[in-house]
Amino acid sequence: TYSSDAPGTSTRFDRSFENSPPLIPHDLDGLLPITLELNMCTTCHMPEFAKDIGSTAIPKSHLVDLRTGKDLHGELDMTRYNCVQCHVPQSNAKTVVNNKFEAVFRDKVLKHGSNLLDVLNQGIE
How far apart are CA 74 and CA 57, in angstroms? Predict the structure, then answer.
């Protein structure tokens, strides 16, 4: 089953590995579908709103055109607009296949954050 907790009241799982898309820790009832006209995720997760309400801000990598490297000045890259193509709800499903993978994070803040844009730009001038 998926979390039925309201946004802001649930417990977040650590990321599966460094820079993996974080799981959605809250109920999605009334927030889907995402359409070109309406994306409810952005109402809480755009950086200008997230700080004030205590939600996780959309990372810088989503505010840059990754094909050109162009900074979109706070606008969401439309290739990242459909949040649920990468982000999925947390669930309490049983493990079907035994997995011994253990994520190693270079920095403990990356368990809940992203440095993907920095990693992508390493060595680029």
Answer: 12
- Helix ranges (H only) for the chain are 42-45, 47-53, 116-120
C-beta of residue 117 within 8 angstroms of C-beta of residue 60: yes
- 89-117: burial string, b at 16+ Cβ within 10 Å, e else: ebeeeeeeeeeeeeeeeeeeebeebbbbb
Q: Which two tokens stand for residue 117?
A: 């844009």
DSSP summary character for residue 89: B
Nearest to 111 by CA among 40, 15, 7: 15
- The reported pLDDT for the residue numbered 94 is 87
User: What confidence tens digit (pLDDT) does each residue in 82-123 have?
Assistant: 999 999 999 888 889 998 999 999 999 999 989 998 888 887
| CA 23 – CA 86 distance, rounded (Å) | 9
Strands 64-65 and 70-71: antiparallel
pLDDT of residue 125: 61
Tell whether pTM > 0.90.
no
